[in-house]
């Protein structure tokens, strides 16, 4: 009888302890949620651009820039919220404060005076890709060819400006509003080549098992940054630059980038960029 009583007492004590632990765990989750809810919100505009920003199978925004932004703004005391935008309209959306910043593998080069910038936080190569059987092996071979690019991107500006002596006279430039369309334009033969960020092309090749060949000679090496409106005087871009530098120095950036692309160090040579 005494053993039964002892056993029942033990059961009761274990039950109380379990309830206590559950209550603590529930409180911790609740406190964490409340802390997140209480944070001021930063609205980030981007478009679909794997591996930087895209929607996963659960319908959530993910990618290099999404993870970097979430962590960086968390350290700054903000909650990051991502919305998909028409990339062509980013400047207007920044001006009317529909979005606080534009973050999506955005090249700073040539746009230094158009926005307030945070960064660069990564470097990237703008490259030309062709079909495997193409007779294009260098930029010189683009003479008389048709090139597909996304509108308002650095490659479009490079081809339209006609200031790079390495690039010959091309036949035509197809500028598409949605960047994911440049790939089928090449694979279906509507264009002889496409130009975009090397990482994005490699991601498309991996995702769709498409065989493109990237030219060895890049169009340009660029710095990626986060754009704020020219008249945004809150100073967020300065603080964000400091936090991104901190994340690069403490290994957070490399850890995040490595989840999406190999040889992350190649894209983190920011300190030597432009020198």
From TrEMBL:
Q: Which UniProt keywords apply?
A: Signal
Coiled coil region boundaries: none
Listed name of the protein: Amino acid ABC transporter substrate-binding protein
Which InterPro entries does UniProt cross-reference here?
Answer: Solute-binding_3/MltF_N (IPR001638)
Gene3D superfamilies, per this entry? Periplasmic binding protein-like II
List, for all copies, the residue spans of the domain called Solute-binding protein family 3/N-terminal.
41-264
Q: Which organism is it from?
A: Lachnospira eligens
Lineage, top-rank taxon, reads Bacteria
